[in-house]
Amino acid sequence: xxxxxxxxxxxxxxxxxxxxxxxxxxxxxxxxxIDHSSKIGEKIRISGGGRCNFTNLHASxxxxxxxxxxxxxxxxxRYTPQDFLKLLQQHSIRYHEKTLGxxxxxxxxxxxxDMLVSECRDGDVQWSTGTTVNHIEQxxxxxxxxxTSRGLFDTESLIIATGGLSIPQIGAxxxxxxxxxxxxxxxxxxxxxxxPLAFPAPDWQQYADLSGLxxxxxxxxxxxxxxxxxxxxHKGISGPAILQISSFWKPGQMLSIDLAPHDDLRxxxxxxxxxxxxxxxxxxxxxxKRFAQLWCDERGINLPLKQLGSKAxxxxxxxxxxxxxxxxxxxxxxxxxxxxxGVDTRDLSSKTMMANDVPGLFFIGEVVDVTGWLGGYNxxxxxxSAHAAGSVx
Length: 393
Ligand code: FDA
Description:
Blueprint: E1 6-11, H1 15-25, E2 31-34, H2 42-46, E3 53-56, E4 64-65, H3 73-78, H4 81-90, E5 95-97, E6 102-105, H5 110-122, E7 126-128, E8 133-138, E9 144-148, E10 151-160, H6 175-182, E11 187-193, E12 197-198, H7 201-208, E13 214-221, E14 224-232, E15 236-238, H8 240-246, E16 255-258, H9 265-271, H10 279-283, H11 289-299, H12 305-321, E17 323-325, E18 329-330, E19 338-343, E20 361-363, E21 371-372, H13 377-390
Parallel strand pairs: 1-2, 1-10, 2-7, 10-20
Antiparallel strand pairs: 3-6, 4-21, 5-6, 8-9, 9-10, 11-19, 12-15, 12-18, 13-14, 13-16, 14-15, 16-17
Helix pairs in contact: 1-5, 1-13, 9-12
């Protein structure tokens, strides 16, 4: 490694950190990239089921949550999904659209890591992995001094790209939040996002037996709704529609689940009001059989449709379109794909990601209070915010 001083030091060699490193390095800046882990880009590697959903063709500020929903606008406009696709083409990485604009590698997420490493090489980026940063201070000159397990480093610009608290088992820490607080930036309280929801064990006991079963549904919380699959798990509910809504759900709130968004069960059941068919058998035409059976048994209404009568069938249809559940909580950071909240955007420049009151200090990626929906939006934020900072740091 070339010795200190550096022009730019980046802490966190994940998606945002590597992208910012090569962007600054290829501008001729002397860049050092530090990570406490010996493995880099671990979240990229495990993302998208090993194929990395690296962007979304429809990425726009509308798919991001933040206390300031406009903050992400500038960076996203200046580095778009198309820009990232050009980079992939230069590296001959093949990809495909799975659904809803979500782009995945044809082969492996490792290709994205290799591409970022190769770009870093072109930018002559220096690496220091397996390195703990113990202390940071800003000298009166404005330069940052870092005390690390590999000695002292000195830099003009410092970029914090250490991500959020999700998946501590692969190295997530609250380091970035501590640095923000140290330099007087405000924080938006972090919480797990894109995360399965749990129910108290006794209430969920019967449904737990259906673990693995998936239903096409529309899930609503307050004014937000998502139509995708929901998945029954041992502890509660998951699947894309639940992960999406979890970022909007607050403890104590109810969710309304439409179990048959593709049909009108009120009229379907009415049409059979004189039938001898058991309710669960009728419902099995629109819902997974085991789910229909349990849903009816739980309510003690698994009777012939004729016996239930028209009024009751109307009510049953209505309930299936508005299954009301109140989760006890999320399953926490161990399973959350992202962390909501983070460094308060009021204290950052939306053009450069630099702290308004600390010249030379930048925050990018998930550590910032900008969180995307499920579907490639979080990586697009990592690339775009890294591009904004790496272009000026
Ligand atoms: P990221 O977490 O990637 O990197 C942070 C880096 O900082 C890590 O290398 C870490 O080791 C390092 N670090 C942490 N603390 C440190 C410390 N104290 N000192 C030094 N280094 C430190 N998004 C998406 O758009 N499409 C997808 O397919 C998926 N899939 C997905 C699956 C799973 C299982 C998870 C958990 C997450 C996703 N995501 C996703 C979300 C996406 O992975 C995430 O938003 C980005 O990786 C965030 O990039 P960052 O670079 O900001 O943080």
